[in-house]
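User: structure tokens for this one?
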Amino acid sequence: MNHIELGKEGERLAVQLLKKKQHTILVQNYRYRRGEVDVISLHNNQVIATEVKTRETDAFGSPFNAVSRSKQRQIISVMNAFIEQNNRTEEVRFDVISIVLHRQKTEIEHIESAFYPLV
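Assistant:
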């Protein structure tokens, strides 16, 4: 599986998990300028930006570790645009779904409130 297919499969699994947790999916792959948010959902009166990181192995650590501070700033910037363009008034939360697709089993970790905007 190439990295694009791997990413698409991870996003498919992430959306499936979020729906199981009663999230309403608002948009997938929301782009603004050079940034993107993988999944934007609504749950418990919060708009949630979810970054999905998928790997075939955890030999180099959890996929979550790939969400650097600069990536976080990019996601926050994109979400600011989404909020403004869509006149959203709900609280915003930033989650990460970390997925490792081993040959025999899939590991999925949903980290709620994984990071916060700097004030």
